[in-house]
Amino acid sequence: VTAWQRDMHDLGFTPHFLLAKEQRGLTHTLPSGVLVIDGIPYSPGIPERLRVTPTPGVFETRGTRAIAADFYNSRAPYRIRANGGRRQDDGSIKAYCAASNLAGHAIDCANKPASGTGRAGRIEIGTALPVIGATPLPAICARSSVTIPFEQIPFWQPHIPGTPEHQWSVNRRNTIEGSYSRIKDEATQSIRRGQIRLMGRAKMTFAMLVYAMAANLLEVQRWQHRQDNVTDISEAKPRQPRLHTRKRIAAKARREAWFAARQRELAQDIDGLLVDIKTGEILNKENDPPDLE
User: Fold this and answer.
1) Which of 32-46, 49-63, 244-258 has the lowest mean pLDDT?
2) What's phi and psi for 224, nearest 5 deg?
3) What are the tens digits of pLDDT across the range 50-81?
4) Kindly report the CA angle at 243 between 237 and 245, in degrees rounded to 5?
């Protein structure tokens, strides 16, 4: 499960996950005493009501989703902090509790007496529940910081799932999917070549990389035109119609030419009258009065 996630970290990416149903809520407890909720480490003193993840239905209203987002945001004070807000180079996280002095004792916890109330300049966000019956205390409570290996929290991400920040980050996928369609759509960018077939993951990956680079260059060019207030950003060489469209246009021109030639051949002057071959109507000569007899 953690193989591709570790590969993403080695490449320098920080994934933002949409967790499956079985990956949400309180899934397990780490040896250091940290609780993993929605793939993110939390203090063991987090209230019980915040350990269960409500999942809004597909067709829920915005108001219901806003209530759920407020619930997810209420977990923020109890989240275990990551040093630097990111993973270390080896993929591990140097984590410390919000009640420790590294976090400025942001919450009040009985397992860390120094986080008690009454300290000048302290901003209290929440109150953690004491860990009862734990002898000795969990490592996250007894130490100033602990190191959590990559394999124990493969779904760690910068934002708490379900919060507006997380939703905005995940919605960036819509823009990326739209970029893929523009690359392949012949009516827009159509960066791909006409007749080409590549076999193999390496070749396809390299081709997709080149396509994305070309698409990004075009997007940067359009952005620069907008910054310069250039209204006409069309290419110097306009796009030609598709092959089947050009065939229809040529066939239509041939038909019209044939009808015009045929009409000139069959339209003749009979007793001072002109005959329209298309309609069969007998036309008088120009400027002649109509002959009613």
Assistant:
1) 49-63
2) -65, -40
3) 999 888 777 888 888 889 899 999 999 999 99
4) 95
Report the SS3 class of residue 99.
coil
Q: How many CA atoms lie within 13 A of 256 on its CB side?
A: 6
Strands (E), 110-148: 126-128, 146-148
The percentage of the chain sitting over the pLDDT mark of 90, rounded to a whole number, equals: 26
CA dist 201 → 13, 120, 179 (Å)? 20, 60, 20
What 3 state SS string does 154-197 have?
Answer: CCCCCCCCCCHHHHHHHCHHHHHHHHHHHHHCCCCCCCCCCCCC
Cβ–Cβ under 8 Å, residues 273 and 283: yes
Task: Specify the pairing of strand 126-128 against strand 107-109.
Answer: parallel
Query: Running DSSP on this structure, what letter comes out for residue 131?
Result: -
Cis upstream peptide for 136 (omega within 30°): yes
Single-letter code of the amino acid located at 194: G
Contacts of 211 (CB under 8 A, 6+ apart): 183, 191, 192
Question: What is the C-alpha separation between 255 and 283, in angstroms, rounded?
Answer: 24
Query: CB–CB of 266/277 below 8 Å?
Result: yes
CB-based burial label for 40 (10 Å; 0-12, 13-18, 19+): buried
CB 215 within 8 A of CB 182: yes
> How many CA atoms does the CB half-sphere of 43 hold within 13 Å?
34
| CA dihedral sign of residues 262, 266, 267, 269 | positive
